[in-house]
Amino acid sequence: MPGKPAATPTYSPRGQKYLVRNRIYSAGQVPAVACVVPDVVLRSQKAVQRYLNAFQDCLQRAWKPVVVRAGVRFRPSAVYAVRQGSKTACGTFAEKDHAYYCPADSGIYFDWEELGQWEDYGHVAAQVYTLVTMAHEFGHHVQELVGISTYYDDRWGEVAGSAHLEPMRRHELQASCFGSAFLGANQTPLDLYGARYEAYLSEASYGDHPPATARDHGSPQSNTEWAAAAFTAMSPAACNTWVAPRAG
């Protein structure tokens, strides 16, 4: 967690069960799968949807056995290429929404028009940004499946004001960490080497980088450290953000 380490947080028995001792941490490594995503230019809704569909298939095939080993029934997600102003099961997709996971319909919603702007930076940048972001949002789906998000949501009403930010950082860092566990396990089929690996490192370290004002996703240093551990371990065992020391 960002800041000077202090005491680790304490949780109720339910928190211990769902956050600290969740069975996902002992469910083993994320497997490599035969992941083939189309090499398309991400400038149209059709192209983006095709790319997201293919990558989601990789994520679901890799994560399903891990979730099942955690003692939970796997439920597939859905993915939608939308634009600002589109209606989703979690409300209107707003200008600030680049991508998000919606637990109401297990949907991942992506701003396809923004990806065209990423193509202006380069095709590799656009593709890897999409992979990292999609892997993060699917990490939220895993959290939802195994009960982490349910307990996190239950606690939301128990804290006030800026106190929300500390558990939010843990939740977001964990989703990114789950994403990196998948990407590390599938480095070869996704060709995350050379320029593509450097692009991954850049995206995985972003966090609450200026001009971000709310400290809700963790510092770049925290994101870098959690991502590196998960990419190497290729396992959710490296992603128990709930036992990290509180920020001082």
From TrEMBL:
Name its cellular compartments: Membrane
The protein in question is named: Neutral zinc metallopeptidase
Superkingdom of origin organism: Bacteria
How is it placed in the membrane, per its record?
Single-pass membrane protein
Q: Which coarse location class applies to the principal site listed for this UniProt protein?
A: membrane
One Pfam family this sequence matches: Zn_peptidase
Record organism: Kribbella pratensis
Q: Which UniProt keywords apply?
A: Membrane, Transmembrane, Transmembrane helix
